[in-house]
Amino acid sequence: MEQTRALAGEKAAPPDYPAAKAPSHPVLSAGTLGLSRGVPSVLDAGRATHTVSGRMALALALDRLGIGRGARVLLPSYHCLALVEPVVRAGAVPVFYALRRDLSIDIDDLARKALGARAVVAVHYFGFPQEMAALREFCDARRIALVEDCAHAFFGSCAGRPMGAHGDVAIASTWKFFAVREGGCLVARGPAARLRSPGLRYEAKSMLNALERAWEMGRLPLLRAVLGPLFRLKDRLRDRRKRGGGGAGAVRDVPTGGLQFEESWLGRRPSRFTRFVLAFSNRRRIARLRRENYAILLDGFHGLPGTRALFPALPEGVVPYVFPVVVEDDSVFPALKRRGVPIVRFGEFLWQGVDDPVALEYSRKVLQFPCHQEMTRAEIDWIVAEVRDAVLKGASRCGE
Ligand SMILES: *Cc1c(COP(=O)(O)O)cnc(C)c1O
Fold it and tell me: How many CB atoms neighbour CB 57 within 10 A?
């Protein structure tokens, strides 16, 4: 895992961007909770084991498939390190396959690399399902396990079946779809794994983090007025403890977002708070608003020179993770970060040696904009205005 460490350093070192002015991922709001069923999701594909992150779910998945030392695992060349770490941790060998420009799996390339492989991981990029029937056949013919990575596709269906149902196992990253700060799940046919409690401090921190994040983003102002003083007291106590050098009892951060694979979190379940929010979130609202916001962004970016929506159509049943756009001008990403626009580049860091041209290009040029259910219309309009301004300024500079 040497490489990961180096990359983590690299990521921390350069630019010091200001905090994002809108939430890149869902935050709690007055509309978050509400009972609603009937939206297909990866949870319908089998028995779910809830974990603290998607990468932990993948580690459990490999374990369940008996994939260990020396096994070859086929991974997409366009990936995040969270996808590679569990494979390397298991002692397995990641082998990277190519994708087409629409991010569909290049089955010919997969076939060239499949000899001796134990598993294929397929990613439904940004919520848009891969063609699973052909891939399922491919895997069956070669007795290769199929792992469906639904980190971007918690909701939705694929060829009439819920996401994750085509794979031997599926994993997902719940914090990308729900207003929580941690969480993943493994979905498989066998019984759910029994995981340990994450501990009381973590339980508390998980809830406080979610509330504080919501307040930072201007949500739940009434609750803040009531609970705010309590939180300030908590912060004062924490500061005092820090000054006293009491590092031993320090509460760690919720283990998502970072680049490291934290071994100690492998056997832990997410907090009760996270599980509560997952169980009682308004799923219809999530699906509806993500689709609506996606359509607004698609419209807002329409005709903007040097940009192209990676998925210009939103088929029935797709619940998008984000709105991904190919932006030609490399100066737009830092310009937007400086303006506090909440953007992320998926696959910004690729595993050493990956030289697939599509992956290299997209890792630099694909910017993902939030379309989640907790974005307000004003925030989306502001993002569109900032992007239009940054892109057009960049274009005029080039023309000088
Ligand atoms: C986010 C993500 C994961 C899991 O990430 P966690 O941060 O550990 O939840 C796995 N695969 C893909 C493609 C992802 O984007």
Answer: 31
β strands within the chain, DSSP E: 47-51, 72-76, 93-97, 117-123, 145-149, 157-158, 161-162, 169-172, 184-188, 307-309, 322-327, 366-370
Are 176 and 373 in contact, with CB atoms under 8 Å apart? no
Q: Which amino acid is at 369?
A: F
Q: What is the mean pLDDT of the chain?
A: 90
**Looking at the whole model, is its pTM more than 0.85?**
yes
Query: Judging by beta carbons within 10 Å of its beta carbon (0-12, 13-18, 19+), is residue 43 exposed, middle or buried?
Result: buried
Task: Please give the share of the chain, as a percent, with pLDDT higher than 90.
Answer: 81
Please give the distance, rounded to the nearest whole angstrom, from the Cα atom of residue 85 to the centre of ligand 1: 11
User: Rounded to whole angstroms, how far apart are CA atoms 182 and 251?
Assistant: 15
Over residues 322-349, the mean pLDDT reads: 95
pLDDT at 297: 98
Q: Which pLDDT score, from 0 to 100, does residue 335 have?
A: 95
Tokens 């909440």 found at: 342
Write the pLDDT tens digit of every residue in 13-45. Answer: 457 899 999 999 999 999 999 988 789 999 999
Testing ligand 1's pocket by substitution, the residue of 24, 50, 55 carrying the most ligand atoms inside 8 A of its CB is: 55
**Strands 307-309 and 322-327, bridge-based pairing:** antiparallel
Q: DSSP letters of 326-350?
A: EES-TTHHHHHHHTT---B-TTSS-
Ligand 1 test: best mutation among 4, 53, 62, 80, most atoms within 8 Å of CB? 80
Kindly give the pairing relationship between strand 157-158 and strand 93-97. unpaired
Residue 2 neighbours by CB distance under 10 Å:
7
pLDDT at position 252: 43
264-289 pLDDT, tens digit per residue, is 889 999 999 999 999 999 999 999 99
Domains of the chain, each with CATH number or no CATH: 31-188 (3.40.640.10), 283-399 (3.90.1150.10)
For ligand 1, say whether the CB of 173 is within 6 Å of any of its atoms: yes
